[in-house]
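Render this sequence as a predicted structure.
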Amino acid sequence: MSIVCIREGYTGHEAGGEADNKTATRHFSLVTDNVADTALFTWPQNDPTDPTIIIPAPGTYFPGHTDRRSREPQVRKVSPCFFNVEVRYGEDIDNTGKRGDDKWAANPLNKPAEINWDTQFSNEPVSEDVNGVPYLNTFYEIVTGIEREVADVVLHMNRNEAIFDPDNLYNWTHTVYDGQFRGMSKGRVLMNTIQVEDIYDEDEESNDFGDLLYCKVRYEIIFRFRPIPLINAYELKKNTGDGGKWKFYPIYNNETNQDYFSWFDRRVHTSKKYMDEDGNIIIGDEELSTYIATGKLVPLEFSGDNPAGGVIPDFVYQQRYLFATWPGVA
């Protein structure tokens, strides 16, 4: 037997039951040179004069699409040397042409990420109302302990990945992205949680039985859109070059700094001053509990614009999360 001619007829697209479960059907005619030929063929088969005309093998992608594959071609003999061939495609077909339970079984890595947006609320310390009027007492001192509910935008992203390094659960969780992320400036995007599910081959007849097929990864990423005012704000850092003293470094109120300090802890202070025996300005231990192990007061001095200038910051920002990058997460 030899094939004399293959031609393709109309190719149809259908909605296969569910709106998102699209299928396609291709129709071919095939002519052989022997009237005794049966409808048993091996696949793929090419037209002898035009190699671009191909009746595909099972599990072949539909032209121009990598999310649906072909099933076994169905052949019907309609005359001694003439055959009709129908090839159906679907999203639930694997690379052998068999139907799977998952409609993306053909290649789950081709499935686009599932994206959902939400909001998350938290209480943040504030020193002024929504109109910018400071909270002051009758002595014109800043009132501490006032909080306001802040809404942050949350991105829930579920996607399939070829492999996920478990170390990234430790390296990425509760870190702030060190750079721009989806158009957001450095310092405004927090990786809150990561969940990973390994998917293994459960087909006992498969050559890859028991092997890792892919990973389902769920990211929860929080965006802090609103800038934080940095008027009379300072950062508390240890100066290793000056006897290891803790110092306040002024934070200039510009857009870059507002982005950078979005996920820092903000502590509100009053104008009350404490001085140690050497004249250094100190703050009560209840406000610097992160750095105090002995329960005693910690000596501090100013640097930058106000070295030991007798001005207590309205706000002290302390870093809450590490900075990191998340390669491949976008």
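Summary. The chain has two helices and 20 strands. The longest strand covers residues 147-161.
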